[in-house]
Design a protein that fits this description.
By secondary structure, this protein is an alpha+beta fold. The protein contains two helices and three strands; from the N terminus they run H-E-E-E-H.
Length: 92
């Protein structure tokens, strides 16, 4: 039972932050409305913890992509760099 409570709480916090980044994305679109630009997207990047569940999702919200990714900082630097390079390759 405790596990379900943690997952629900964690999901609520992630959802709250997802809507915060969505607000930033939409405000950036308004800022760029008079300029030619690609679709604005956003990402929440979390450090991996010892939790059973950790965020690793992609959402489409009102035409914008919002990603939630986790980075394992408990690795040696070459592995952390590989994780970051993977994020750059996929999203940039």
């Amino acid at each position: 039972m405790q596990r379900n409570v943690l997952i629900q709480c964690y999901s609520w916090q992630t959802m709250q932050k997802k809507y915060q980044i969505f607000t930033y994305v939409k405000n950036k679109e308004v800022e760029l409305k008079d300029q030619e630009h690609e679709s604005v997207s956003g990402m929440l990047l979390y450090a991996k913890t010892d939790e059973v569940v950790y965020p690793d999702y992609e959402y489409k919200m009102s035409g914008n992509s919002i990603a939630v990714r986790t980075l394992d900082l408990d690795k040696d630097f070459p592995e952390i760099r590989k994780q970051l390079d993977g994020i750059v390759e996929k999203y940039f």
